[in-house]
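Milestone 3.1: sequence recovery, worked example.
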């Protein structure tokens, strides 16, 4: 459970502190800072933003250093409570004639790598862009798999980090080979081995999650996930060697993965929700995916993650909103909205409200 958060030079915030309870509503018009606060909570949970890949964009304009600091509490197996302090420092400082950008992660004041920082404050985020997971590009579906598995599995975080770095190096070599027409096998040997070993770890763990999701009970919307995995091995890299040189990029591996979600009709045959489902069915499938994410984290780690709902009520009809409200109360929930009218009055009375309405 997140108890409080302190923001300094983060996005629109100069210096501000917020406290949270079992259910907290963040209320305010667009551009009031609601999503900036949600982003800060997500940053404490995962060590990264869900809105940008450039850390500098999280800094308040013209500032060199920003920080997000949170106090959290988690239950120990014996029933005692463990207090934990999490902090992310974002710096854009001058070093010599250049600029240095970095993030620093601290747990109880001790510096950590992101692979050891993530997972200390478990969360599941549901934002408007998640409504397009099924119908949009494969990258959104890969991001969903990463979002689930990075929180529960340190070895997955390490494999994904190593794979991404190795893939960039290998692609740089392929670009040189494309320009020169020459491919030096010895230069590729080291990076080939790294992408194969770590790529296979990623594939295996993604497959395990999808198998778990398929076997889980689905109360909101019944579906079957089909994993379209891009297997990486020495044989497959050799198979696509000429095509890779021609294109200058690695053509196989988990960075090419995808999955599809299929619904059942009355005769129990399956149809891809992306192509044959209504908009309502697609959104039900997304809601079910998010609930499965919650349950998978709880099953794997024995802890219920924080549920973060970022301004999604204006995107959903009454039926979908009620399905989300069914999840409130099962864990700490932090939600944001532009209008409190979206929240039932009897539920609103039980919430702590952080209001940005002037």
């Amino acid at each position: 459970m997140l108890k409080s958060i302190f923001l300094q030079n983060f996005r629109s915030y100069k210096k501000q502190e917020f406290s949270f309870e079992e259910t907290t509503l963040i209320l305010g018009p667009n551009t009031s800072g609601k999503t900036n606060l949600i982003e800060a909570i997500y940053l404490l949970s995962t060590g990264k933003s869900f809105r940008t890949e450039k850390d500098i964009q999280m800094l308040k304009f013209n500032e060199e250093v920003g920080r997000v600091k949170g106090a959290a509490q988690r239950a120990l197996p014996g029933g005692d409570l463990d207090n934990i302090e999490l902090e992310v420092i974002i710096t854009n400082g001058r070093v010599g004639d250049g600029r240095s950008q970095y993030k620093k992660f601290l747990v109880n004041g001790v510096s950590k790598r992101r692979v050891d920082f993530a997972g200390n404050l478990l969360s599941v985020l549901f934002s408007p862009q998640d409504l397009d997971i099924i119908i949009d590009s494969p990258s959104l579906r890969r991001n969903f798999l990463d979002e689930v598995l990075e929180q529960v599995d340190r070895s997955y975080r390490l494999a994904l980090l190593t794979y991404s770095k190795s893939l960039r190096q290998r692609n740089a070599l392929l670009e040189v080979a494309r320009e020169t027409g020459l491919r030096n096998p010895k230069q590729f040997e080291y990076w080939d081995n790294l992408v194969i070993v770590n790529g296979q770890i990623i594939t295996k763990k993604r497959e395990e999650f999808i198998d778990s999701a398929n076997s889980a009970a689905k109360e909101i919307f019944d579906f079957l996930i089909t994993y379209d995995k891009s297997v990486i091995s020495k044989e497959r890299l050799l198979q696509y060697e000429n095509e890779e040189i021609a294109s200058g990029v690695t053509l196989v591996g988990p960075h090419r993965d995808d999955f599809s979600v299929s619904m059942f009709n009355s005769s129990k045959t399956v149809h891809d929700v992306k192509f044959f489902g209504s908009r309502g069915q697609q959104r039900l499938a997304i809601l079910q995916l998010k609930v499965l994410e919650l349950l998978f984290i709880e099953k794997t780690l024995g802890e219920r993650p924080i549920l973060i709902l970022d301004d999604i009520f204006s995107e959903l009809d009454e039926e979908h909103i009620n399905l989300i409200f069914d999840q409130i109360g099962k864990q700490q929930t932090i939600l944001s909205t532009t209008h409190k009218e979206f929240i039932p009055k009897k539920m609103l009375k039980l919430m702590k409200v952080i209001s940005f309405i002037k």
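Residues 185-215 form the longest helix (31 residues). The domain at 134-302 is CATH 1.20.1050.90 (Glutathione S-transferase Yfyf (Class Pi); Chain A, domain 2).
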